[in-house]
Amino acid sequence: MAIFNHTYEIKGKHAELVRKIAAQDKLDCRNIDVFFISAALGIVRNLKADIDLKTKTEPAKIDVEQMARYGDDIEFFYKLLMLTDKKYCSSADERCNKAFRHLGTDKAEKDELYFTRVMLGGLEFLYEQILEKTSSKKDVFNNICDFMETFEE
Predict the structure, then answer these.
(1) Minimal CA–CA distance to 59: which of 104, 107, 8?
(2) Cα distance from N-terminal residue to C-terminal residue, the chain
(3) Does residue 76 register a pLDDT over 70?
(4) What is the pTM of this model?
């Protein structure tokens, strides 16, 4: 996939969210972990967010080595989204084309952007559930527990 075969940058306000989540002692995660959790949440909860190009901040980066190492997993999430999101594409045949035939071609550019928007929607949701309503480090752990219980339901 073209979007994922180089250093991946999350920009603007979303870069700040990634840094805040990854910096939590209780979470012990890297940017790539935040990426995966966010992608899963975006897919499961049908969330989307626009890419923020207005907020000037250092991008949160996932280096090319990590993107390559986890490329099969990233591709799985991408294909899962393309195959299951009937609101994005109603035709089953076209969803299969997006997931398999167009993968890695110029035709996938729009779909890769859509995948990024879904991941960013999941990122915003993750931040809201875990960090936005915290006042202490203890709250982070409690919010994680509450979030997991809600997610299981």
Answers:
(1) 8
(2) 34
(3) yes
(4) 0.89
